[in-house]
Amino acid sequence: MPDAEGHPNVEEFDFQAVLKALSDPLRYHVIATLVRQPQDTERTCTSFGLPVGKSTRTHHFRILREAGLVRQVDRGNSRSARLRREDIEQRFPGLLRLVAENEPLPGNEALPGSGPLPGAEPLPANGTLPGAAGLPAA
Fold it and tell me: Which of 58, 70, 100, 107 has a Cα-to-Cα distance from 21 of 20 to 30 A?
C-alpha cells in the first residue's frame, strides 16, 4: 500500500505504470536528468523548466511519484523530487541505464509542439511504415 504521500513500496512497483510514466517525453526528460545527477540529488519541480503550466507540471510529477520513480518532499511552498534510484534498480535492474542512454540529445528533444526530430522522415501518404511490408495489418 502506498504511503500517505502516494509513494508505493518497491514491491508494489508496476512495470506497466513505470512504462506509462516514461512514455511522456517531459516525464522521460525529468527521469533522464535525475539519472545523470549525483545520488540523492533533490530538485524542485520547477527547476526542470518544463514548458507547461503549474497544474500540468503537478500532474506529471504525480504520475512519476505514483509509478515509484521519484520521491517528493514538501519544502514550504514548493516540492522537491528525488529519483528512487536504489528502489528502481532493485525492482527493474538496468532500467535507469537504458533511460540515460536513450534520451534525445540536447536540441533534438521530441517535446510536444517541437515538431519532428531533425532528419526524421515523414510517413508515406499511404500510412505504411518503411520496412513493414508483409506484416499483418492490425
Answer: 107
Could you tell me the pTM of the whole model?
A: 0.72
Helix (H) or strand (E) holding 31: helix 25-35
Give the start-to-end residue ranges of the domains of the chain.
10-101
What percentage of the chain has pLDDT greater than the value 90?
Answer: 57
Cβ atoms of 46 and 114 within 8 Å: the answer is no
What digits encode the pLDDT tens for the residues 73-107? 887 888 899 999 999 999 999 999 999 988 765 55
d(CA 28, CA 60): 10
Average pLDDT of the chain to the nearest whole number: 80
Cell reading at 119: 532528419
Q: Extract the C-alpha cell encoding 15.
A: 512495470
